[in-house]
Every structure is written in C-alpha cells, then in structure tokens.
Specification:
The chain has three helices and twelve strands.
Length: about 170
C-alpha cells in the first residue's frame, strides 16, 4: 500500500494481473473528469476507491497500467474538503503528501526536489521500497486537488527514458 496526498491510500501491487498487457505504443489519455492529459505506453485501467483519512472519506481516482515484468505506471487524483487547506499552503500539503508516500511504501526517501509544472507547485520523489522496488513519483497541488504520477519498478527503469517520458507528459487543462 502506498500513501499519497493528505493520507489517501493506493494499492499498487508490483505484479498486477496483466492490467494493460505488454506495451506496444505510446498514446495520450485524456481525463475530462480529472482535467489532465498524460501519455502512456498502452491503455490504462481506471478505478475509484473511497479511502478513510483523518479528513474524512475521500474518493481517489486512479489510472493504472502494467508494463509486464518491468513497471507499473499510475496517475491518481483526489479532491479534498475545505478543512484540508485552512492550516497551510501548497508546500505544507506537498510535505504531507511526501511523508505519507514514504511511510506507506515503508521505504526510504532517496531524493526529493521541488518542481513546477507551469506555475503549479510540485515535488519529485525517489523512494526505495525494500524488496518491492523503486518508486519515482511527482506530486502536484492544484487548487483543491492533489495529483500524482508514479512509476514503480526496478531502479534503472524508473530513472530511464520511458519513465521520464511518462512523467513529463502530464498536462493540465487549466
């Protein structure tokens, strides 16, 4: 289980039941509901789950794509209630999201850097998750939403060109 956002939990097994099959070609995926576009090496599977947090129950929308025996690509977003923002700014939300991601992965934060996508603040994290592999994720605070792109796999893969292509492809409609 990996935590993102303000305590939301995602289930991301490293070996999925052929969610997208072997990747053949990269294609854009537009989420009208999420207000973003991302490019993936195949068609993702979309799912939703309600997650109980200290802020209440949140709905997390996820797109998952397994690249068989190599990596899992994930895009997720959640909308948070107003009380999530009363005591902090975007950097505090991103700090909380970082801490939750590391704790949930039961891993070690290997690197972190502040990033932006246009004017949108974000963080890029590299997390070593013991025997589960490496997680490279970018988290963005966009108004009342928190978005996350993530690649889970071997260290060399998550630092490679396919992971970079995926992470760099995120575009917001706003």
């Amino acid at each position: 289980m990996y935590r993102i956002g303000l305590g939301t939990t995602l289930l991301i097994p490293l070996v999925l039941a052929a969610a997208g099959g072997p990747a053949k070609e990269w294609m854009p995926y537009l989420s009208k509901e999420g207000g973003f576009e991302v490019t993936l090496p195949g068609k993702p599977v979309e799912s939703r789950q309600n997650v109980k947090t200290r802020l209440g129950t949140l709905q997390v929308t996820m797109l998952l794509l397994e690249q068989k025996n190599e990596a899992v690509f994930v895009v997720s977003f959640s909308e948070f209630p107003e009380n999530a923002f009363k005591d902090g700014d975007d950097q505090k939300r991103l700090n909380f999201a970082r801490d939750g991601a590391v704790a949930s992965a039961k891993g070690k934060l290997k690197s972190e850097k502040k990033i932006t996508l246009g004017k949108i603040p974000g963080r890029e994290l590299l997390i070593e998750s013991g025997g589960k592999g490496t997680i490279r994720t970018r988290i963005y605070a966009v108004e009342k939403r928190l978005y996350q792109t993530m690649v889970v796999g071997a260290g060399a893969f998550v630092q490679g060109k396919d992971a970079e292509r995926f992470l760099n492809s995120l575009k917001f409609d706003k």
